Structure of ABC-type Fe3+-hydroxamate transport system, periplasmic component:
Amino acid sequence: MSPTSRLKRFIRPLALASVAVLGLSLATACSSDDDSDGGEITIEHAFGTTEIPDTPERVATVNWSNQEVPLALGVVPVGMAEANFGGSEVLPWVQDKLDELGATGEDAPVLFDETDGVDFEAVADTQPDVILAGYSGLTEEDYDRLSEIAPTVPFPKGQVAWGTTWRENIEISSKALGLENEGKQLITDLETEIAEKAAEHPAIEGKKTMFLTHVDPTDLSQVSFYSAHDARPQFFEDLGMATPDSIQKWSDENDEFNGTLSAEQSDVFDDVEIIVTYGDEEMLKTLQDDPVLGQIPAIKNGAVVLLGDDALGTAANPTPLAISYILDDYLKVLDEAAAKVK
């Protein structure tokens, strides 16, 4: 589907007020009055059902990026996971929103150190009314322990760990907050922005794009990649690009968000036109010089986007606040790679 067609599909009349809640200045976690009648909220998810007795006021989030949905809707968490990738404890787009909402200094959320997994004690200390983990790798044991602290919302029913799309996370998290309509409007706004900006880069349309995980230049015996279940390659389709048949076939046969094949099997990737991965020009040269991996069309042609440990590299995993922050830069480097496709 072309970006123009996607734009026509995404822009639809909605009898919804604009997200006025975004302008609220909240220093602590709270929810605005909206469609919720203040009654019980029921959420179905991968581990069953969570009942939230009333619209939550104190919101904690665990695992990567889950603070972004409440923040985008004007709700400041009492606690959230510290960033462990991207060079800072709080990612820049998150900090911008915290600054906008006046949640700085003593009013800033508590940061949970998740180096060794969820810090259950620290989460409990924030005394949350609800714990959001819509995009996460929570195990059922993690979920049970968190549920002893407060009603917990893990990834959606039918989804795999770390497989939640940015849309699904907005849907499940906004419902848990009693802000379901605002969540729908946020999705529409982001879809419109994505489609409009992607339409300015027609060269990327339909390009079959693969996202390699971190490459070890000292061991090229395997090829590791994110599957079609992962948010990173899913975002390519939002931009009007395409999933290579090789990746889709593997994903249809496996539930994991990433996979690995031996280098000897890499000829299945002969349909890959663009590769996105983490690394530098030296790493790319190593791949091109390899007699096996160097035959993958994207590598051979140099149609490779090299990401670093920076804002763009972090936000290539799309999240509600990160999308707008890096969209122009991401489209630019994808466009440059598309120009090398032969």
